[in-house]
Amino acid sequence: MVKVITYGTYDMLHHGHIILLERAKALGDYLIVGVTSDDYDKSRGKINNHQSLMERVAAVKELGIADEIIVEEYEGQKIDDIRRLDVDIFTVGSDWEGKFDYLNDYCKVVYLPRTEGVSSSEVRAEKRKIKVGIVGSAILRAKFIKESQYVNGVEIVGISSAHKVSDSVEGLFYTNVYEELLEKVDAVYIVSKPENHYSDTKKALMAGKHVLCESPLAYTKEECQELYNLADSKNLILMDAIKTAYSTAYERLLLMAKGGRIGDIVSIDSVCTSLRDGIQKKDADLSRKWNSMCGWGPVAMLPVFQLFGTDYNKKIFYTKYLDKSKNIDAFTKIDFVYPSGIASVKVAKGAKAEGELVIAGTKGYIYVPAPWWKTDYFEVRYENPEDNKRFFYQLDGEGIRYEIVAFAKAVESRKNYSYVSKEISEEISGVIDAFNKREDMIELN
Ligand code: CTP
């Protein structure tokens, strides 16, 4: 019996795939099809798949051409599969010509003609693109524009902000009248100053546009709830944009912590600081800067709320102001006291500290080195160093790229793909409210 193997993503199955599979089958008696896992695709930069692994496997299975379907999960697996499954022929389309010659050491390699004029990328691109407008001029704007180029189905059409920043605006429609932008788009990404997030988001939702807004969404919990209710009533997507939530390493460490790998969690220490866009001295531009609490607070609080929940007994702020009249804090520490543990969050744009995340448990701890909010790496550490484990997951575009993919998917399907829950998003706004009102605050001189 001649065994043939072929691999592919098979997203939005099209006739090019079917012809290839038929030809592959005709090369022998038994056809094995390897379908790439979502994680493997992500690690090789294929982030735009519209269908999940299960959907893609089901579509290949339904064709009835494959005798066996396996999942391709890691680089180098092809050699393992060929040996393990006793494969005689490896085959793929001619777009891969030469790329798999190294497999000749293990079996025969055949490149089959690729069907002209069709590909998953084209099928995906035929779907209408979501037109996105950008509101505001914070530093993240340029990163967002860059990262959106990697995402199928999203097109940045223009910017509305009071300050025109030339480098990222090139080729895009620009206005300082928000309503003009809203007329031209399906959705907006809001990076305006935090005090404007609520009104900018509300205006967009009222105009029937989907919203991805940098955190905090609003300055009070009630306003934040109001925005989510408004989005729901209009069947629109509203997402809190905390890019770290979309980092694979971060996602995995949360799952490990929740899965009991370090025992019961007793404390979380989360530190985020930066001086680059900092607020060290009272300069004229201070009014345009985000304070430490809004700039770093949401991301620093994220692991706390995702692991301990939002039901804490008490919180205390320790704040050192740079300019109290403008509510600009150089440094803030928040202690959250929970029934079963304690969390400490340190944020600063006017001070520097090691930006690490430590989650301590009864059996061991998770250590994420600085800058933890854009990490691709973490360690699970125990009393006995021999038990320590290191984990690495590729991170493209600081998480922004995956965040845009999630937003585009949500807009397209009108389903929730956000990695930041409504409850957490509302709690973040609630904490900012308490900070602004200086509740439970100890001021440092
Ligand atoms: N294939 C083909 N003819 C096409 C498209 C794909 O023969 N028009 C073959 C590829 O050569 C590969 C298999 O089908 O052997 C699975 O390819 P896959 O990468 O899943 O499909 P594409 O349509 O090429 O996907 P994309 O556009 O995302 O790269």
Keywords:
Dihydrodipicolinate Reductase, domain 2; Rossmann fold; 14 helices; nine-stranded mixed β-sheet; 26% strand; 33% helix; 20 strands; alpha/beta; six-stranded parallel β-sheet; 3 domains; 445 residues
Main sheet, how many strands, which sense, barrel?
9 strands, mixed
Strand content: 25-35%
The bound ligands are: cytidine-5'-triphosphate
- The number of domains is 3
Task: Provide the spatial order of strands within the biggest beta sheet.
Answer: 19-18-17-16-12-15-14-13-20
Uncertain parts: none
Mean pLDDT: 94
* Rg on CA atoms, Å: 25 Å
Q: Strand pairing plus helix content: what structural class?
A: alpha/beta
The CATH superfamily of the largest domain is known as Dihydrodipicolinate Reductase, domain 2
Report what the structure shows.
With 445 residues, the protein is of the alpha/beta class. It folds into three domains: 3-120, HUPs (Rossmann fold, 3-Layer(aba) Sandwich); 122-243, NAD(P)-binding Rossmann-like Domain (Rossmann fold, 3-Layer(aba) Sandwich), CATH 3.40.50; 248-394, 2-Layer Sandwich (Dihydrodipicolinate Reductase, domain 2), CATH 3.30.360.10. The protein is 33% helix and 26% strand. It has 14 helices and 20 strands. It has helices spanning 15-26, 38-43, 53-63, 77-84, 120-126, 140-148, 166-169, 178-184, 194-206, 221-233, 248-258, 292-308, 400-413, 422-436; strands spanning 3-8, 30-36, 68-72, 89-93, 108-112, 130-135, 154-160, 173-175, 187-190, 210-214, 238-241, 265-273, 314-323, 328-337, 342-348, 357-361, 364-368, 377-382, 389-392, 441-444. The protein has a nine-stranded mixed sheet with strand order 19-18-17-16-12-15-14-13-20, with helices on one face. A six-stranded parallel sheet has the order 8-7-6-9-10-11, sandwiched between helices. The protein has a five-stranded parallel sheet with strand order 3-2-1-4-5, with helices on both faces. α9 links the parallel β9 and β10 (210-214). The protein is globular and about 80 Å long. The structure holds cytidine-5'-triphosphate. Cytidine-5'-triphosphate (CTP) binds next to α1, β4 and α5.
